[in-house]
Each structure stands twice: as structure tokens, then as C-alpha cells.
């Protein structure tokens, strides 16, 4: 069996002890979840230009978590003190990847920052900070309710799930055409889909890779991506 190629944009890291230098990385748990699902995970270098041609060889895309998008990308005129790890090249590349995947029908799973990238790519906005430690979803496992009949509910095989989160920002206004398909108890948008999209697409605000090794509902998201990639 030939494994479908799943492109995963790398994340810049200022230091990595094993390599001694700055690096481009992806979370091992994320890579392993794609591999378990039957995909061939491939980290790709963030670079400006030529995104469509670079993605032409791939069967699917996974937009992973990471630092914050520059607030100017969604029209904000100020920057909250908690915004961190903004990188212009990373933002440009991720937004290009999201737009190309959606326009071309390339199967796409977006995770945490990835969800926010898709939302901004389609003209949506973000709440720059959810209100500090008492409201943010960092180092937190909490329940979410999934919309019956949605792609995310189908992939998870459930309409309720306990999810592992690490984020201090959330969707403010959804982008054009996006539908909210999961929420937390506090109203935070936890999943987005695009009815009428050319290809399979879902985005989740949580980190399914954190528990995918032991939770079939979370591993199911990666399996759905790889399945769509294998049959496109």
C-alpha cells in the first residue's frame, strides 16, 4: 500500500538542544498520529511563493498548531500584550496553504492555530486574548459538543468529546462561508467547516494529537484526513 502524502507546514523554533541550532519542527505526536492513520507525514519548509506548485505532489494537508497570527492579518489596529511568536513568513505561508487547499479541494485538517489561519484566510477575525488564566484554554481538557451530521462528528464517531486544548485566542467572527460545528461550554468555537467545499475539510481548535494514541475519537480525525487523501 502506498501511503498518501500529507504535507505539514513546519514551525520555526529558535533553539533545539538535539540539533544545537535553530530548527524547523513539528510535534512528534502529530506526526505519529498521521502515520498510525496510514499517511506519510512530510514536513514542508515555509517559504514565500510557489505554494500551489509545491503542494501539487501531495494528497492532503495538515495545518498544525503554533504561535499567534499577526493581528494586522485580520484587520486589528492594536496588539494585545499576550500575543506571542508572530512570524511574518510563517503567517504568509500558512495563509497561502490554507487558501490553496480550500480552492483546489486538497483534503485539509486544521489544528489549533491552523483553525485560526483558515478563519483569517476566509476573512474572519480572532479574539486576541480570551481573558487571562481564568478563561484561557491552556493545559486544559474539557468537553465539547459536536454538531450532529458534521464532518468532525463523523470523524470522531461522537457528538460529545473531551478534548485537550492549549490556546489563549479564539474565533471572534467566522470567515466567509464557515459554519461552527463544535463549541465548548463557554461558547468558544471549537470546530469549523465549509459547506460546499471542493474537498474534505474540518478544523478543530483543540489538539487531537495529544490523546490520539489512546482515544479513538481523536485518532479518527487523522484517519478521516488520510482516507480523504487516499480517495481524492
Description of the molecule:
The chain has 232 residues and is α/β, with parallel strands linked by helices. It is 27% helix and 26% strand. It is built from six helices and 13 strands. It has helices at residues 28-36, 51-55, 88-104, 113-121, 151-156, 216-231; strands at residues 5-9, 11-13, 23-25, 40-44, 60-63, 108-111, 126-127, 137-146, 160-167, 170-171, 179-184, 189-193, 201-204. The strands form three sheets. Strands 4-1-5-6-13-12-11-8-9 form a nine-stranded mixed β-sheet, sandwiched between helices. A hairpin with a 7-residue loop joins strand 12 (189-193) and strand 13 (201-204). The chain is globular. The chain starts with a strand and ends with a helix. The mean pLDDT is 97.
In short:
The protein has 6 helices and 13 strands.
The major β-sheet equals: 9 strands, mixed
In whole angstroms, how far apart are the ends? 16 Å
Mean pLDDT equals 97
Low-confidence stretches: none
Instruction: Count up the helices.
Output: 6
Percent of residues in beta strands?
25-35%
Using the alpha-carbon principal axes, give the shape: globular
How many E-type strands? 13
Structural category is alpha/beta
Spatial strand order of the main sheet: 4-1-5-6-13-12-11-8-9
Order of helices and strands: EEEHEHEHEHEEHEEEEEH
Radius of gyration: 16 Å
Classify the helix fraction into a percent range: 25-40%
Amino acid at each position: 500500500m502506498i501511503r498518501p502524502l500529507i504535507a505539514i507546514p513546519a514551525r520555526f523554533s529558535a533553539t533545539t538542544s538535539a540539533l544545537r541550532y535553530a530548527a524547523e519542527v513539528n510535534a512528534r505526536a502529530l506526526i505519529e498520529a498521521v502515520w498510525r492513520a496510514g499517511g506519510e507525514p512530510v514536513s514542508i519548509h515555509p517559504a514565500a511563493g510557489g505554494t500551489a506548485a509545491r503542494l501539487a505532489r501531495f494528497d492532503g494537508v495538515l495545518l498544525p498548531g503554533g504561535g499567534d497570527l499577526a493581528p494586522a492579518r485580520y484587520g486589528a489596529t492594536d496588539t494585545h500584550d499576550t500575543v506571542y511568536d508572530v512570524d511574518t513568513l510563517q503567517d504568509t505561508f500558512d495563509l497561502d496553504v490554507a487558501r490553496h487547499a480550500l480552492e483546489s479541494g486538497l483534503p485539509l485538517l486544521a489544528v489549533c492555530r491552523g483553525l485560526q489561519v483558515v478563519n483569517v484566510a476566509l476573512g474572519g477575525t480572532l479574539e486576541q486574548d480570551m481573558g487571562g488564566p481564568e478563561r484561557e484554554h491552556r493545559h486544559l481538557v474539557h468537553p465539547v459538543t459536536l454538531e450532529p451530521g458534521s464532518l468532525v462528528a463523523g470523524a470522531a464517531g461522537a457528538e460529545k468529546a473531551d478534548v485537550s486544548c492549549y490556546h489563549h485566542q479564539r474565533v471572534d467572527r467566522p470567515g466567509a462561508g464557515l459554519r461552527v460545528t463544535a463549541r465548548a461550554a463557554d461558547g468558544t468555537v471549537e470546530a469549523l467547516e465549509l459547506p460546499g467545499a471542493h474537498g474534505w475539510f474540518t478544523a478543530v481548535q483543540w489538539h487531537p494529537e495529544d490523546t490520539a494514541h489512546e482515544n479513538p475519537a481523536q485518532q479518527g480525525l487523522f484517519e478521516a484526513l488520510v482516507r480523504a487523501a487516499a480517495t481524492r
